[in-house]
């Protein structure tokens, strides 16, 4: 057990999880938890960087995301799920690391750069919306990773610049204060980002095209019936090109049993889009059934969810305290520690 490496990854609790989260990241985490000691951080402090005026949104979603993770197969018997804000060492490390990062380096971080651009598009060019906390969140993410000696960080491609920034901080810290922090490696999931039923390259909450694990059958029916299909197919028995059809794209993700048939019938004009969508609804509901059952279980046992989080916080804190001891000693700010 002990020779297993540790992984640490995080998720912002800004909304319920959807299929994009599952296929893009969480299905990977579910597999990895058997090979690594796994720590999943509900990054509420990071979520607050752009939702600081909406604390109830973050509070509600800490629990929703936890329930989603449990329903998708994160097993609390072998993995640790914890809440970022319960670990004060993360905030302390963030302050210490902030000396090791220049402002220009943060502004050059491609992830931050893209997000600032998006904010300016939304709120205008004044820069009013770009806070110190926001520009600095890669520093806080470096603290997330290093506080638990996360050797491996499973992330999507968009997060690579943040891991790179963490590695730079670790390198600088260790070269100034001596070998202290563990150098993390990203573990890139090879799952592509999944597309929306509307044909958008990404499924996302803000794009309004997400299928949530908690969606009702009626919501799923509505979303699938409105999906984008081959625009050249006018009549029910026109042959069509499944490669440009979002319904087929989702059949590929979910319908292992009947995929060949869906594809050939579509190409030969033997399958109308309505029937094809109805089949997808059925397959999707089948896929979501065990997830929804677990979701329902945890929703009706909130005390169990609380206990999982409390246990997780405790386990995570025990590690971050040890790391902090080393950090303070090497930074020579371990006043009076020996006397206690
Ligand atoms: N920034 C990540 C995201 O938006 C979430 C995150 C927070 C994270 N802390 C982390 C990811 C630590 C990896 C490691 O998806």
> What is the C-alpha radius of gyration, as a whole number of Å?
23 Å
Shape: elongated
Poorly predicted sequence stretches spanning 5 or more consecutive residues: none
- Return the average pLDDT rounded to an integer: 93
Question: Biggest sheet, strands in spatial order?
Answer: 1-2-3
Question: Counting H and I runs of at least 4 residues, what is the number of helices?
Answer: 14
β-strand number = 5
Helical content (DSSP H or I, runs of 4+): 40-55%
Described by strand count, sense and barrel closure, the largest sheet is: 3 strands, parallel
Distinct small molecules: tryptophan
Structural class by helix and strand composition: mainly alpha
> Distance N terminus to C terminus?
33 Å
Helix-strand topology string? EHEHHEHHHHHEHEHHHHH
* Strand coverage percent: 5-15%
């Amino acid at each position: 057990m002990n020779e297993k490496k540790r992984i640490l990854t995080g998720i912002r609790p800004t909304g319920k999880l959807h299929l994009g989260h599952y296929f893009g990241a969480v299905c990977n985490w579910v597999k990895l938890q058997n090979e690594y000691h796994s720590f999943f951080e509900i990054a509420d402090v990071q979520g607050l960087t752009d939702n600081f005026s909406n604390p109830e949104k973050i509070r509600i979603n800490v629990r929703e995301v936890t329930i989603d993770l449990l329903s998708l197969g994160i097993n609390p018997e072998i993995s640790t799920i914890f809440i970022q804000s319960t670990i004060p060492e993360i905030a302390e490390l963030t302050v210490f690391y902030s000396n090791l990062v220049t402002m220009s380096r943060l502004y050059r971080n491609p992830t931050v750069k893209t997000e600032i651009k998006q904010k300016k598009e939304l709120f205008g060019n004044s820069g009013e919306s770009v806070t110190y906390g926001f520009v600095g969140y890669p520093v806080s993410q470096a603290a997330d990773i290093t506080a638990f000696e996360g050797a491996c960080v499973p992330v999507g491609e968009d997060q690579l610049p943040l891991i790179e920034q963490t590695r730079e901080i670790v390198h600088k810290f260790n070269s100034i204060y001596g070998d202290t922090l563990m150098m993390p490696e990203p573990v890139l999931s090879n799952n592509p980002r999944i597309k929306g039923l509307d044909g958008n390259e990404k499924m996302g909450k803000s794009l309004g095209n997400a299928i949530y694990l908690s969606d009702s059958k009626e919501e799923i029916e509505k979303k699938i019936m409105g999906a984008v299909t081959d625009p050249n197919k006018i009549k029910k028995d026109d042959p069509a090109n499944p490669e440009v059809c979002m319904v087929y794209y989702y059949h590929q993700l979910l319908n292992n049993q009947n995929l060949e048939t869906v594809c050939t019938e579509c190409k030969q004009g033997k399958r109308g889009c309505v029937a094809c969508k109805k089949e997808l609804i059925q397959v999707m509901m089948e896929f979501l059934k065990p997830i929804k059952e677990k979701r329902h279980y945890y929703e009706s046992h909130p005390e169990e969810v609380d206990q999982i989080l409390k246990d997780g916080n405790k386990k995570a804190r025990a590690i971050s305290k040890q790391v902090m001891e080393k950090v303070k000693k090497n930074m020579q700010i371990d006043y009076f520690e020996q006397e206690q």
